[in-house]
Amino acid sequence: MSDTNGDPLNFSELVTFYERIVDPLTLPMGRRALDLVGLTRGDRLIDVAAGTGALAAEAAQRGMRVLAVDVEPKMVARAAARLAPFPGSEAREMNFDAIEAPDASFDAAVSIVGVLAFPGGRKGLHELVRVTRPGGSVAVATWDQEQTAAPQYLASDVFAGLFPDRQLWPADFFPAWTKDEVVLALREAGCTKAEMHSVQGEWVVQSPAAVMAEAGASIRMFPGYKALSEADRHRFEDAYTAAVVGRAGPDGTARIMTRAFVGVGRIA
Length: 268
Known about the structure:
By secondary structure, this protein is an alpha/beta fold. It has helices at about 15-35, 55-60, 75-85, 120-130, 150-160, 180-190, 210-220, 225, 230-245, and strands at about 45-50, 65-70, 90-95, 105-110, 130-145, 195-205, 255-265. The longest helix is centred in the first third of the chain and has 23 residues, at about 15-35.
């Protein structure tokens, strides 16, 4: 994936950020997805756009045989290390819109803030359905963008307040899905029925004043940030830090609500 200037977005730099920040934020929705697809020990699961493999490892601990796939080699390497203790589970590098697996080869497919988070999500959904057997399930999750303050969305709100004529990222960079749109897309991809489930979580910031040191790597990669002058970057970072500090409780920890939804499709 590239920004509006054609520069590659270097997700390999974000492995540590994913483990420290993204995994705790997305695991609640991933766990809900695992519960909803109803797999049992020995079933085959593919986790698409699996990141550093936190959910894949949890599924393997539950006894599932897991294939975790991601486009970023360093993410795949970390996922492979997490899955190494589990025979029958592995991580491989591949694109979510061209899954290298036969039709109907998994009992379920999941993608947590994965295929729906990038352009081409509809094609990704078709691939998830294609590789899932009849009678299996597909589960996808994404942020409820109207009701979440996950790190990048809080940053987007702060950015818009400072620079109302600019965007932190282009409109099609992180596609916005409504629940109804996800239901329709699952059905169009080949699911006979689809249902939605809300998941509420919490972004816990132990040191709000140092939030840019913790979450800044993910924010500084966005094209809107890159286009700012040095002075405006300082303005933005100060405002973002203040927004998090302002949410701190008496113990000094900021606990910021996040909300997502999981869509589950069943395959006839």
